[in-house]
Amino acid sequence: MDTKLILKLDKNVIEKAKEYASSHKRSLSAIIESYLQSLTGIGDTDNIEEIEITPFVKSMSSGSKLPPDFDDKKEYRSHLEEKYK
Predict the structure, then answer these.
(1) pTM of the entire structure?
(2) Basic and acidic residues: which segments have biased composition (predicted)?
(3) Whether 37 contacts 43, CB under 8 Å
(4) What is the pLDDT of residues 35-50, one digit of tens each?
């Protein structure tokens, strides 16, 4: 069952991703779904089209882990306070 997902991403990333999808004759949704399936191991691997994870896609992940006590709301609040000084 397909479900709509709304993502908030940098405009430049979206444009580059659309160009990549178009040049590979695939939809951006299909590329993102394949990428997420490869990350999570979900799905029937016999039916998933094998795609190479490109340097562009790899660059979207920082590879860093957040500490267990990381408070995202506190960090976001600090970010906004700094931004709107």
Answers:
(1) 0.47
(2) 68-85
(3) yes
(4) 888 888 776 555 555 6
